[in-house]
# Entry
Amino acid sequence: MMWNLLAIGVCIYAGLCLVFLLFQRSFIYMPTPETPAHAAALSLDVPGARLRISTQLLEGPKALVYFGGNAEDVAYTLPELAAAFPDRALYLLHYRGYSGSTGRPAEAALRSDARAVFRFAQERHPDVMVVGRSLGSSLAIQLAAEEPVSRLVLIAPFESILSIAKRVAPFLPMGLLLRDKYESWRYAPQVTCPTLILAASHDELVPMHDTQKLFDAFQPGVATMRVIDGADHNSVSDAAEFWEALASFGPKFSD
# Structure
């Protein structure tokens, strides 16, 4: 009887591992549907996909590239960013599989797409600020480590998705199973541009000690952190304090 129970337990555990291995990206990526809000979005052809980019097109040297969260339709973030940065052209990427962008989301593909959108913006504007929220913060950090980003903003950033996965399902060998680890801590030490981290004091997905570990990975003096009191992972941008901090960061280092 004991051996039978043990065998059943092993089969159940192996089944859980297999289910996660096969369907893990459905837990990370939550594509948004295409709506009339995307009618004016630009299209950018990249290897394996045609990307949609919601934009505020402006002439001039300044631009902002935005990478949103894993379930965010960035078209609806555009008006708020336009109000905060009226002097910057805006380029907001819809990830592969989101809002009319073709292809399927995966870490390597999204990192390549982020680089393509940044270079698309930089060809038109020499001063490109990059803002990344949650999942997008990892894309933004790598860009700032490897490309001439003028300044960087990270909203509710995490140290790595692997850390989150281990906390959510500590009973599974996430280090072996997880394909898209988004290890932001690897790139933070190479960032040299001024960086602002906007964290939520009550973030239920990314605890403050994780955000602090990411902050500590930056070289001294590169990053500053602002904690929005009373906010959680999804409501951090609801606070007026958040938008004040975001809008004031750009001009501070513009010259």
In short: The mean pLDDT is 93. The chain has eight helices and eight strands. Helices lie at 2-28, 78-84, 107-122, 135-146, 161-168, 174-177, 208-217, 240-252. The longest helix spans residues 2-28.
